[in-house]
From TrEMBL:
Keyword presence, Protease: no
Keyword Repeat in annotation: no
Protein name, entry field: isochorismate synthase
PANTHER family with a match to the protein in the record: ISOCHORISMATE SYNTHASE ENTC, ISOCHORISMATE SYNTHASE MENF
Keywords, in A-Z order: Isomerase
Lineage, top ranks: Bacteria, Bacillati, Actinomycetota, Actinomycetes, Candidatus Nanopelagicales
Enzyme Commission code(s) on record: 5.4.4.2
Top-level enzyme category: isomerase
Domain Chorismate-utilising enzyme C-terminal: 146-397
NCBIfam families found in the cross-reference section: isochor_syn (TIGR00543)
């Protein structure tokens, strides 16, 4: 029998600035308001694709766990070996799984470190590295703004003349740097400006998502649904009035209801009960406001085979990033959107060996490829949509990544 590889988790105790610990070697992150996980070094990584990708991901993760001897003195969610995942929107594109060699976690003022291998406990950086500013040159996206508005109008016609109720259309922008793009300063800027979002990085996909697709913790499941958006002005009194108008908007409430319904229907078979609030709340971010609903449920104890991969297969793609009905919306996206999404709008986050974890939807994000960064934004199109207003909304959704670069 092959010798098992040791995995050790030890308590650190003190408060740690997680995003300042990262080296420049392919960091992975999932941080919100200072709490979360960061990792570096690659113990194992793989890619999956195709219609069985969630099941293939599960098999690979469990195969890796069988090779490990886990010593964990902390025993909370996020300790022990961690799998960082970043799934593509389209099953035929590539999804990435990464198990870092070193993971540092922080929650409620206490911290810990996990490392794989028989070496001594790794030393952490004593102070944050000073990172140089980069120079960026903005270029065009896959299609022009004018062409994108034409495609939005085409989608509205489809909604008016077919069974399609909603479709999410995305667009991209490209930016180049004079040298390889370092994600660390971008991640720090996103965290400072958008502390209520989840700051993520997996295999070059970096961003700040406000949307939690799935949290599993001790048999409880939570999903935060966002759909319906309005830009902020920076004037508090004006923004309160805009928030009230968003909460009354029939177009936005209709879009939101589709998204909530798709998540609740996906979770229902796995839960003894689900809680779906009657009306959404308005989530305030630095640049926009969203209609938001937290759907919660208790997993059925007898269904031991149900795990994050099982639920992800039913949750993704939700109406918030695809549309309603899903199959019709997905086909229209493929026919008219005009670009490959890659891992934008796919599930991204982490899982531990117990099955606990957090995965968001990869929104407000960009994909780094050497000296190039490609950023994304999408809008939910329904019967009452207006192409010009949707373009304005998409520009507002580009703002987090644009400001993080500047």
């Amino acid at each position: 029998m092959p010798q098992l590889i040791p995995v050790t988790t030890a308590r650190l105790g003190e408060h740690l600035p997680l995003l300042e610990l990262l080296p420049d070697s392919a960091p992975v992150t999932w941080v919100r308001g200072g709490d979360g996980l960061v990792g570096w070094g690659s113990y194992a990584t793989t890619a999956v694709s195709g219609p069985n990708r969630f099941n293939d991901a599960r098999k690979w993760w469990h195969l890796q766990l069988e090779k490990l001897a886990i010593s964990d003195s902390v025993h909370v969610s996020g300790t022990g070996p961690i799998l960082f995942t970043s799934f593509s929107f389209d099953p035929n594109e590539e999804s990435v799984l990464v198990i870092p060699e070193i993971v540092v976690g922080m929650r409620n003022g206490s911290s810990w470190i996990t490392w794989i291998g028989d070496q001594a406990q790794p030393k952490l950086a004593e102070s944050a590295q000073t990172l140089e500013d980069a120079e960026y040159n903005w270029g065009d996206g896959s299609i022009s703004p004018a062409e994108w508005q034409i495609r939005v109008a085409q989608a509205i016609k489809e909604i008016e003349s077919t069974k399609l109720e909603k479709v999410v259309l995305a667009r991209d922008l490209k930016v180049n740097s004079h040298r390889a793009i370092d994600p660390r300063k971008i991640l720090r800027n996103l965290s400072a400006e958008y502390p209520s979002t989840w700051i993520f990085a997996v295999d070059g996909l970096i961003g700040a998502t406000p949307e939690l697709l799935l949290r599993l913790s001790r048999g409880m499941v939570t999903s935060r649904v966002l759909a319906g958006t309005i830009s902020k002005t920076g004037d508090d009194e004006r923004d309160l009035a805009l928030a009230a108008s968003l909460a009354r908007s029939s177009k936005d409430l209709e879009e939101h209801e589709y998204a909530v319904r798709s998540v609740a229907d996906a979770l229902d078979p796995f839960c003894t009960s689900t809680n779906v609030p009657e009306s959404p709340f308005v989530l305030h971010l630095a640049n926009v406001m969203h209609l938001a609903t937290d759907v919660t449920g208790a997993l059925i104890e007898s269904k031991k085979s149900v795990d994050a991969f099982t639920i992800l297969e039913k949750l993704h793609p939700s109406a918030a990033v695809c549309g309603t009905p899903t199959e019709i919306a997905a086909k229209l996206i493929k026919d008219i959107e005009g670009m490959p999404r890659g891992r934008y709008a796919g599930p991204v986050g982490w899982l531990d060996a117990r099955g606990d974890g957090e995965l968001g939807i990869a929104l407000r994000c960009g994909q780094i490829s050497g000296n190039e960064l490609r950023i994304f934004a999408g809008c939910g199109i329904v019967a009452g949509s207006n192409p010009e207003k949707e373009l304005t909304e998409s520009n507002a959704k580009f703002a987090p990544m644009r400001s993080a670069l500047s």
